[in-house]
Amino acid sequence: MAKTEIESLRRLRDMPGALRRARRRKPGRRMNGTAVNVRGTIRERNEARILKAAEAVFAKKGFNGASTAEIARKAGVPKPNLHYYFRTKQLLYAGVLDNILEIWLDAMDEIRPGAEPAEALARYITRKLESSRLLPEPSRLWAMELISGARHVEPFLKKRLRRLVQQKSAIIRAWTEAGKIDPVEPEHLLFMIWAMTQTYADFAAQIAAVLGKDKLDEGVFAAARKTMVSLVLKGLRVR
Amino acid sequence: MAKTEIESLRRLRDMPGALRRARRRKPGRRMNGTAVNVRGTIRERNEARILKAAEAVFAKKGFNGASTAEIARKAGVPKPNLHYYFRTKQLLYAGVLDNILEIWLDAMDEIRPGAEPAEALARYITRKLESSRLLPEPSRLWAMELISGARHVEPFLKKRLRRLVQQKSAIIRAWTEAGKIDPVEPEHLLFMIWAMTQTYADFAAQIAAVLGKDKLDEGVFAAARKTMVSLVLKGLRVR
DNA sequence: TCAAAGCTTGATCAAGCGGTCAGGTTCTGA
DNA sequence: TCAGAACCTGACCGCTTGATCAAGCTTTGA
Which of B64, B146, B234 sits opposite A234 (nearest CB)? Predict the structure, then answer.
């Protein structure tokens, strides 16, 4: 789905290394049409394990701070095996981001042309916040990538995300014109919903420390949801 | 002011190195009471240059990703000279965070016992947003530190920031009891104001890309401020 | 049964890292 | 004028890093 956006990253693939030696052919399937690896799962299973480990390590230490050795250890494979499946660290990083883009966009389809603002906004906030609760590491990795300048996901931001925001903004503007909500700059409204919901994943350490907790429990997320929904619905005077 | 919070970090100072050799005495002033270096500026000027460069590099690459060589290059000094002023990378990082803690707390004194909610909240949001506009790099470095687990600033979060939030929360609760604003969980209200204002520094790359701009100009911040203030004031039904 | 493709891994490499050192130059107060 | 403190820096060190290699092992299709 969102595979194409980071295609440019793929093209960046470790140029120095690539020029030094012929490219290893990509295995996993045979050349002729017949499917091989009938269970076809060795590669898939190993790639998934490595990606999952990489997600956690990249999220905690950033691209530069993460080491392939640590990722390999966490995935339970020897380091050369990691490099067998992901030739370079850059490509591994691309693979991880690839997974995340879909999560990121997923909740936004709550904002539909026909929907009632109150329900649509409440559901959107709820889903985004659930992402922060259940998948904090992808959220943190995404945040790291943006803070670092978003070089790897720039094409995605400029094309796909921008287009999507324009579409959703039109819907929100229509709500205003129909007298269903107060006038608002829809793009900024979205930025603020993103910020509020993601802060409970990205800055969980700060929130937990301030609240005097070890980690954010369901009660914290419930209170956050209530505060957030109330703020947005009343803030827009949703009818 | 906020110097003591990271004292624990100072105690961490490069233990391996420190044990291997006697500590170099800290220069800059003579031992006897008389002030030396009457202009006293060589050390101050160099430390400031290095801190400024370090802030930018740490903000972009995180603690692990930043290299002392790059910081030194950016500061225009040879690498050994950087280590002359900041013995270890950890201590340099501590120095940078030290500067930031004060910025972070600064705006919060807008929320005062006597203040009217409408004005206090509007001014707080405005000041926080100005921080994001004028000092985006400290904000991004702070965000990186929190995402990475906040190990270096944990004492600050758990003691000073927590206490401050408790104080400000009491004030906000009093506003509710006085019937000046709707009931709200004050801690979460603060988390959301932090999130919304800082998103314009931390995730500037994403916002710029979505808006189709090269960088966030004053118009963007003006619109953000307007949206944010309106959302919070109406969301709390401030009288 | 077997050859080829896919998968695994201990050993190894060059590059970059944080940090040190020795020996210089400049500044300061008396 | 001068001794000592402060400041500066090219060369270097031990270690970790991303990545590679070569030699194995396992799976697969015919």
Answer: B234
